[in-house]
Structure formats: structure tokens, C-alpha cells
From TrEMBL:
Residues 5-365 form the Aminotransferase class V domain. Belongs to the class-V pyridoxal-phosphate-dependent aminotransferase family. NifS/IscS subfamily. Coiled coil: none annotated. Its cofactor is pyridoxal 5'-phosphate. This is cysteine desulfurase. Keywords: Iron, Iron-sulfur, Metal-binding, Pyridoxal phosphate, Transferase. It catalyses: (sulfur carrier)-H + L-cysteine = (sulfur carrier)-SH + L-alanine. The keyword Transferase applies. Pfam families: Aminotran_5. GO terms for molecular function: cysteine desulfurase activity; iron-sulfur cluster binding; metal ion binding. Its EC number is 2.8.1.7. It comes from Candidatus Opimibacter skivensis.
Length: 383
């Protein structure tokens, strides 16, 4: 097989070996059901509660405010839908650039006539206009939930969560922020930054897939999202994903312990790729905020050219895993709602490259070499 370079870490990251190591005993010998009262159950229950403590400590929450879920999608659905069903929310303020799991949750509530929805204006980087947000908040339009993502998964642009939380607080609005792309990559402290709901997904910070968490501020009294047994203190029924929970906590602990080092390395990689692309691809543009941005994401826009029309597929053939700003179902790529919302020209081709702690300059050299090959009219397959 030819060389492959993985530059799609905003989609998912590889599992760290240290994380796998702590998960293994819970896939083998320690398999007791945490709800069982015997010793095998008590062992796994204690491991889950230790993990909860780790997660809570890392974001300045109390353990009673952390609930494990199946990932970012479930956490975001839970926050938005429970805010409406249990907190009396009748208006949602959101943006046109949210992740599908937020967008579709809001659309679902709208279709059921459960809420009124206001869209805050966004700028060319996909970031909300705070003046417009304040004017929306200032109109008394019922109990309000603001749901705005901390960092945009396609563009990388990051909003000022502190400013957002203070604004929501000023107007008495509940605040949910989709922090799936920032947990494990940026410090978050819910004591300093008063939010009501945030979400995390372990597979975005080198943990296992299918496990995440939701932070719910203790002032939000919501009812169970999934009915059944009394797991997760009655909030989310079903036998726990024990090895996932153990892996999530370990991955998050490592991510925060090594954050500065990883950030410096990945920032360097992002800048290096940007410089290389500017030097080799005439007419290339960059989407997303130039400084207020995820260091893991570089979203580029190739100029109109027959060679770039199916760029993500060409890159794949050339050994590079990257992502288009698109839902690609039949081989034909359609423009994403995020790029459409920022007015990205439909004749240019967007590609999201996203990096990890494992990405090297050599990976970037290879990727840029393959990209120039594609632009020159031929895909370079290396064996
Ligand atoms: C910003 C954002 N929100 C939510 C999700 C969904 O997370 P999960 O895949 O864990 O359900 C993702 C993952 O793609 C994301 O990037």
C-alpha cells in the first residue's frame, strides 16, 4: 500500500496507546455491571466515578454536573431538547453555522412549534455578531436558550466564550455551547466562564469513539433524556460504556497535561502547511478566522479549476485523508451549510485539513507535493 497521511483529525483522532492500555482491563477481566451490588459491580462503579471526578476537575465542575453520553451529538441534543422541555425555553437563538446535531435539533423543535428561533448574523469567518446578538437578547421574546458553538468544526473559527457567557448572563438567557472541538484542546473552566451546558466527545482528543459527556450546570433542573434504569443519577438510562468512560477520562487528562506542548507543535504544523500552500498553490485562499481559531484546523479554498473539482477524492487517491466542506454521498460534493452561510463562492473548492499531535512536517511536505501534482493535472500515487 502506498503512503497515507491522515489530515482529518477534526473528524476524529487516533486512539492514544496509553488510553487503550487503561481501557483493556475493562474489556476483559473487569466486566461487572456497575449497577450490580456485588464486588465486580462495585469495582466498575468506582472506576466510573473516578473518571467522572477527573472530567469534573479538568473543567472546574462538580462531579454532580457531569453526565456520560454516547458523544457530542447526544450531549447537544440533550441540552437543547431538555432546555425546551424542562426549563420553559420558548425561544432559541442560534447561528446558521452550527454543527448538524445542533442545527437539526433546533429544526426539529421548530417543526413541532415548540420554539421560536432567531438566527444571529455571522461574519465572513462564521463568528456571531455580538451587537446583533445583544439586540436579539434585549427584545423580550420569552425564555431564551442561546446555542452557539465554541469553535466551528469546518472553519476552525473560535468565539469568545467568556464574552458570550457574560452577555447571556446579563439578559438571563440559558447558554449551551457546543464545545466538541475545543474540549481537550483549550482550557475550559465553567467556574470562570458561566455556561449552562457544554459537550465533549472523547474521539476528538485521542480517546475512544461513542463516548462523550455533557456538563449541566446544577442550576438547570432537567429530567432524564433517556428513560429506563437509574444510571447516571437517573439522567441517562442504560448500562454504562465502562471502557469508553475510562478511556475518555484518561484521554482528557493526558490532553490537558500536555496541552501547551501539543498546541505549540500543532500550531507550527498549521503555519508550515499554510506557508507551503501559499508558496505552491497560486490563488489559494484560507477560510476561517486568521487568529481566533482552532490550531488543529486549516480550511483552504482552491481557485476554480477542473483539477480541483473533486479535490477530496483526488487527495484520497493521492494518499491524503482530508475533508471537504461537504456532505459527500454520491461522489458529487455539495457545498456545506456553513460555507454557504459565510458566502463562500460555490465555484471554489474548500478542503479542511486538520492536524494532530502525531502530524509531522514530513507529512505536510508529502501532502503539499501531492496537492501540487493534482493541480498540475496528475494524481501522484506513491507506492
Ligand atoms: C462541533 C461538533 N459538534 C458535534 C459533533 C458530534 O460529535 P459526535 O461525533 O461525538 O457525536 C462534532 C463531530 O463531528 C463536532 O465537530
Amino acid at each position: 500500500m502506498g503512503r497515507r497521511v491522515y489530515l482529518d483529525n477534526a473528524a476524529t483522532t487516533p486512539l492514544r496507546p496509553e488510553v487503550l492500555e487503561v481501557m483493556m482491563p475493562f474489556l476483559t477481566g473487569q466486566f461487572g455491571n456497575p449497577s450490580s451490588i456485588h464486588q465486580d459491580g462495585r469495582t466498575t462503579r468506582a472506576a466510573i466515578e473516578n473518571s467522572r471526578k477527573t472530567v469534573a476537575n479538568l473543567i472546574g465542575a462538580s462531579t454532580g454536573e457531569i453526565f456520560f453520553t454516547s458523544g457530542g451529538t447526544e450531549s447537544n441534543n440533550m441540552a437543547i431538547k431538555c432546555a425546551v422541555s424542562d426549563l420553559g425555553v420558548t425561544r432559541i437563538i442560534t447561528s446558521p453555522a452550527e454543527h448538524h446535531c445542533v442545527k437539526h435539533s433546533v429544526e426539529h423543535l421548530l417543526a413541532k412549534n415548540a420554539v421560536h428561533v432567531d438566527f444571529v448574523k455571522i461574519d465572513k469567518y462564521g463568528l456571531p455578531d455580538f451587537n446583533h446578538l445583544e439586540s436579539l437578547l434585549a427584545t423580550d421574546n420569552g425564555k431564551t436558550l442561546v446555542t452557539l458553538m465554541h469553535a466551528n468544526n469546518e472553519l476552525g473559527s473560535m468565539l469568545d466564550l467568556q464574552r458570550l457567557s457574560e452577555l447571556c448572563h446579563k439578559y438571563g438567557a440559558w447558554l449551551h455551547s457546543d464545545t466538541v472541538q475545543t474540549v481537550g484542546h483549550f482550557p475550559i473552566n465553567v467556574k470562570q466562564t458561566p455556561v449552562d451546558f457544554i459537550s465533549g466527545a472523547s474521539h476528538k482528543f485521542y480517546g475512544p469513539k461513542g463516548i462523550g459527556f455533557i456538563y449541566i450546570n446544577s442550576r438547570c433542573h432537567i429530567h432524564p433524556y433517556i428513560d429506563g434504569g437509574s444510571q447516571e443519577r437517573n439522567m441517562r438510562a442504560g448500562t454504562e460504556n465502562i471502557c469508553g468512560i475510562i478511556g475518555l477520562a484518561k484521554a482528557m487528562q493526558l490532553a490537558y497535561a500536555e496541552l501547551e506542548e501539543d498546541k505549540a507543535h500543532i500550531n507550527g504544523i498549521k503555519q508550515y502547511m499554510k506557508d507551503q500552500l501559499i508558496a505552491t498553490c497560486p490563488g489559494i485562499l484560507f477560510n476561517g478566522h486568521p487568529s481566533e481559531s482552532l490550531y488543529t484546523v486549516l480550511n483552504v479554498s482552491f481557485p476554480p479549476d477542473p483539477q480541483t473539482e473533486l479535490m477530496v477524492m483526488s487527495l484520497d487517491i493521492a494518499g491524503i485523508s482530508a475533508s471537504g466542506g461537504s456532505a459527500c454521498s454520491s461522489g458529487a460534493e455539495s457545498q456545506s451549510h456553513v460555507l454557504e452561510a459565510i458566502g463562500h463562492p460555490s465555484d471554489r473548492t474548500p478542503v479542511r485539513f486538520s492536524f494532530s499531535r502525531n502530524t509531522t512536517k514530513d507529512d505536510i511536505d508529502f501532502a503539499v507535493h501531492q496537492i501540487s501534482g493534482i493541480l498540475a493535472g496528475g494524481v501522484h500515487v506513491t507506492v
